[in-house]
Amino acid sequence: MVLNVNRYVCGYCGACVAVCPHCVLELVETWLEIGSGCTECGTCVKICPVGALSLDEVKA
Amino acid sequence: MIDTEYDVVVVGAGPGGSITAKNCAERGMKTLMVEKRQMIGDPVRCAEGIAKHTVKKHIEPNPRWICAEAKGFRIFSPSGIKVEMVGEFESGEVGYVLDRKLFDRALAHEAARSGATILVKTRATGLLIEDGKVCGVELEHLGKKFCVRAKVVVGADGVESKVGRWAGMNTSLKPKDIETCAQALVYDPSTDQEFCEFYLGREIAPGGYAWIFPKGEGCANVGLGILGSFSDAGAPFNYLNNFLKKYLPNAKILEIIVGGVPVSKPTDGIVGEGIVLVGDAARQSDPLTGGGIGNAMEAGAIAGEVVSEAISEGDTSAERLREYEERWFKEMGKRLMRNWLVKEHIISLSDEELDKLAKSIADVKFKGLQLYELLKHLVRRNPKLLWKLKGYI
Ligand SMILES: Cc1cc2nc3c(=O)[nH]c(=O)nc-3n(C[C@H](O)[C@H](O)[C@H](O)COP(=O)(O)OP(=O)(O)OC[C@H]3O[C@@H](n4cnc5c(N)ncnc54)[C@H](O)[C@@H]3O)c2cc1C
Q1: What are the chain B neighbours of A20 within 8 Å (beta carbons)?
Q2: To which H or E segment does residue B189 belong?
Q3: Could you tell me the CA-to-CA distances from B67 to B106, B257, B330 in Å, in that order?
Q4: Are B139 and B148 in contact (CB under 8 A)?
Q5: Strand, helix or coil at B152?
Q6: CATH domain B51-98+175-262 topology
Q7: CB atoms B228 and A19 under 8 Å
Q8: Which residue in B has a C-alpha nearest to residue A49's C-alpha?
Q9: Class of domain B5-45+100-174+264-344
Q10: In angstroms, what separates the C-alpha of A38 from chain B's closest C-alpha?
Q11: Residues with a CB atom less than 6 Å from ligand 1
């Protein structure tokens, strides 16, 4: 599985960054960056208030 | 011009960062505050409610950034039973409803006026650590990376804080320790411009609440927070749409706001060697109300004082800086601990039980009371339901 962010949906609030246990996500203005080290735990997916994050079979 | 060395570098220009920077600069500290956004205060992640006396402690109130003044609040239980309070409240976020875009900028302006240097569109990307001691930050500004040394680094980088994590403090939030929120600034002349309203219930906002705060000129901040452990992808936004449909079907949405707010148990461990955390970064928001503007400013004022003294004495060890944590805990820790316990208990109650609580105090005419006294009434009248809280209220 791979974590994807739909940038047309993201509200760039940083809630996902706050809960990422591995410090993989970074918010730069409106750009959510997914770094390396993601364990696909899905915590950020659940937290996202607008549903911009998803775990998919392939990288979007 | 940016120097390569400062007494204090503050990361983040929210209320916590600006008040810290102001208090350091006022004491003669060479202070730099960096903010990754190109515009301080925007986008807003807040319902913008705050008690008046808290504002007045830190800045002269200015109608430019005060949108509305609430004279009280109402809480609606799941079945709609109303509890009303009029007056100013100790820990309630009720009083002024701010325009955070202008308010945050006004606070940064105060810091600048006190002598702090401010750099926007400048992101901290890491810490300089030597012999286990934080001694500066790595920054990125318009594609350029550079380092700035500091005697103390202040992490005021909000809910998404990394500064503490870089220094080895574990500040990541578990889903049960964060409210995930969605809000709309709406125009709807039917909104009550004198009261802040709170709505409870599992159908409305599981593990949290919905709010309607007046914003003046027929506008209101309408939003809700859901406890992270009860949330699912996009849930806050869906609940918000349902809430709007039910309570304000004619509302016209002028702005959408999303964000997370820490509601964790107050923690120690917010200082280290050459580093302190302030505001949401230190998880200092109120776990019951989710209010964090005032707490961030209060903490910033204490941090600014202690950090400046520590630097003047030439001792910026964790041990010396711990005075900040101790004073903060003395001033706010007890209340936050109590509110955390109350929140933990309230989220375990069913809608029927919440109705019962509301019913038990619906006839009380609260006036100028404190949130604490409302809780006391509740515990006194519902000893069985709230026995867990008895020792704390
Ligand atoms: C929907 C919602 C409603 C709320 N309603 C209320 C309310 O009614 N009343 C209330 O009191 N509180 C409320 N809060 C909480 C309140 O918004 C926060 O507690 C408050 O903003 C905390 O202030 P702060 O200075 O600690 O952090 P912030 O205001 O979040 O500021 C942190 C700053 O740091 C910057 N930053 C982050 N990382 C970096 C980096 N690496 N480099 C440089 N800069 C960085 C960010 O861009 C940001 O500007 C609400 C929160 C939400 C989400």
Answers
A1: 172
A2: none
A3: 14, 17, 32
A4: yes
A5: strand
A6: D-Amino Acid Oxidase; Chain A, domain 2 (3.30.9)
A7: yes
A8: B234
A9: alpha beta
A10: 15
A11: B 11-17, 34-37, 45-50, 93, 123-124, 156-160, 162, 181, 183, 223, 257, 259-261, 279-281, 285, 290-294, 296
Residue B242 tokens, joined = 């349902």
B259 touches chain A (CB under 8 A): yes
All domains in chain A, ordered by first residue: 2-56 (3.30.70.20)
* Tokens representing residue A13 in the block: 């609030």
Distance CA B268, CA B256 (A): 34
Q: Which residues of B touch A27 (CB under 8 A)?
A: 160
Q: Is B201 exposed, middle or buried (0-12, 13-18, 19+ CB in 10 A)?
A: middle
pLDDT in tens, chain B (393 residues): 789 999 999 999 999 999 999 999 999 999 999 999 999 999 999 999 999 999 999 999 999 999 999 988 999 999 999 998 887 665 567 899 999 999 999 999 999 999 999 999 999 999 999 999 999 999 999 999 999 999 999 999 999 999 999 999 999 999 999 999 999 999 999 999 999 999 999 999 999 999 999 999 999 999 999 999 999 999 999 999 999 999 999 999 999 999 999 999 998 899 999 999 999 999 999 999 999 999 999 999 999 999 999 999 999 999 999 999 999 999 999 899 999 999 999 999 999 999 999 999 988 877 666 677 788 889 989 988 898 888 777
Taking contacts as CB-CB distances below 8 angstroms, the residues of chain B near A53 are 233
